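Now for a sample.
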Amino acid sequence: MRITDLIKYDNYIKNDQIRQNEIEKYSKQIATGKKILSPSDDTVATVTALRLKTINQDIDTYLRNMDFVLNILDQAESTLSNISKAGQELRVEIIRLLNTGVLDKEDAKVLRDYFVNMKDYIIKQANYSIGDTRIFGGVKSQTDPFDSDGYYQGEVIETKVSVAPGVEINTNFDGSKYLGVDTNDKQMIMVKAINKIVDIIDRAVAGTGSLGELNTATVSVNGQNLKILEAFDVGLNNVLQYTSIIGTKVKIINDLKPGFEENKVFNNNLISNLQ
């Protein structure tokens, strides 16, 4: 065979191999429904697809965090709402007691029991847990954040998770903020006011005091001496404020979630078109 024939033959073999490779490539594309079988087929498309997959992985993480946090936020909002409702009922009774003037001892005892029971209910709610985790103890979540007289024993440090770039939401809460704790002695302010009322009733029943003290007695709140109703309102308003804050966080997640889900679907469609 002449040199020119060898060259022609060699070129034929090479071209034939290229054609075979092309046939194999298109056959695989038909079989798999994918345009890109290896990164070298289309570098730009491959890089874009990989980037979109990474974005979707981040979205999946955010969505998982949202589901996890949303359950905690719902429980926290419900708990604070229960405390707020109890506080509003108590406020009505405090005003009635202040305006009534003189009560007989029997009525005083009934009211005393009511205030003590409501105090215990508020503290029990403040110690609410999901499983073994107390949600209002900050990172100290394995023990009750409030003792039997409403003193805060939890942590001020909170745990948060990302639900979007630059957006973090609590998985536990600093109870000293959310439950209205005195900054000096760490006792729940609503409980301090209730204790003052109970003490006055006890002394009035025992004959060592007067119910008239209800209108003149003061409660120390964050270094200030306030009348009983004023002190109670400071604690109650604090709980109402943070109930609203948690509600806002729930709204943030509910607003973000559909957008992430739509983006994930959109990204998957782009990836499918690129491959």
User: Anything to note?
Assistant: Helices lie at 3-32, 43-100, 105-126, 175-178, 189-206, 228-274.
